[in-house]
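README: folding subset

This subset contains proteins for which both the sequence and a predicted structure token string are available. Records are stored as plain text. Below is the entry for histidine kinase (497 residues), shown exactly as it appears on disk.
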Amino acid sequence: MQASSTDRQQVEYESLSNNRGRTKIWPAAAYLLFSFPSGILYFVILVVLLALSVGLFIVWLGIPIFIVMLYLSWQFAIFERNLAIRWLNCDIAPFTLSRQHKESWLQYLRARLTNKMTWKALAFLLLKFPLGILSFVFVLQVPILILVLALITFILGVICTPTLYLILAARNAPLVIRWPGQRPIYLYGMKDLIRYMFTGFGLTLLPRYILLGMAWVWKQLGRTLLGMSNQDLRVAQAEEQVRREQAKAERAELSRQQLIVNVSHELRTPVASIRAHLEVLLKACEQDDSLVLHPQELSNYLGIAHREAVRLGALVEDLLSLSRTEADTLRLNMASIVPGEVIEEVYQALLPLARKERMITLVRSLPERLPLVQADYQRLTQVLMNLVRNAITYTPDGGIISISTRQERSDYLVISVADTGIGIPADQLTQIFERFYRTDASRSRSSGGFGLGLSIVKDLVDAMGGHITVESQEGEGSSFHIHLRLAQGITNYNSRP
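--- output ---
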């Protein structure tokens, strides 16, 4: 997601505030020269538009012209702010923190008229015309001023050199001349006196100080008129934080409502199934004779009720995991763990399910030595269990599921769960980690899925400081890759328990 312009202004302002530097001479001179044509341009455009808006106000044509004038002044001010930041190395507060959104011309006009920055920006743009002329004239006169000062200081140097030499001869320490912002000048003898005499012992740098002084004036104007004051900035930041919290609360409320609808929908099917089968059993028990159901039929009814109860239990566990994540109460016991032990535990736990119920080959491919990873042992086990169960669910009988590892760069270990199942359509890969999303709802419901497993997997992996990616080809299979950080300062170990 790209950052908005106001966010970039805030980051840029904080960066400049933390790293204030001196204004460089050549960018400052360029800014002073550019102030003249830009000041004329702003003055002519704004004054002409303002005059037209006042003159045509009676026939209602002045209002749109006035809006155009406000819009141009706003854009000119933003351009000038960026120019001052880059050329004068000026730390200017953000122009505004309000979000850009669609608004009618009346709303736009009201917002601009009530914004203090509109009038401050207009004042800056209009002031740039006279001050730009002065800056331009001074910069053009700098070469002449340097030559005149050089001549004057040379004459003064010739006059003062004998006196300075006598002072040096009378003392054992060098003579030091200091100018603001410059290195001290150390005079040890006649050779140094003659060398610095042609520069008037630093007086020829006077135009530089005047130029930087004018740049300093522009910097102060920019800070005052092109950015919010400290008080306004704090108020705007507080209002922006309130808006963000309100938006967050609205999203949470919408998510809660959607969750209630989805959970109600998911509960309906297993509850109805359990109720129907139990009603059949109750009716059979109410008969005068003994049970009219055959033992095999009774076993089938009880088996279906048991499976649906297991589905309800799984849904409750998933919902509890989601609630802990949303409430930020998910507790992790982060430590340097052995990934091979987790993989082996998952492999041994799910091997009977894959082999006996689905006739699926479950394999693990691990190198002899692997680095330790930083993770929660129980949560990583839960993640791998969910991924392997999903693979078993969506892999046809006789398929293959593999668990493998590889080291990515020098700071990540990747644990991959790949299958030869039905795969995931390319247009749905970005949605599979959303809550209650299922690529094949009918198959998921029949196999006990609620569309929460992958969402929980992503939340847990993110909470452990890692991330998860997926690759899939429809009809060929899928591969889920868990990227976990390596434990710091831990060497390799034997991965097999």
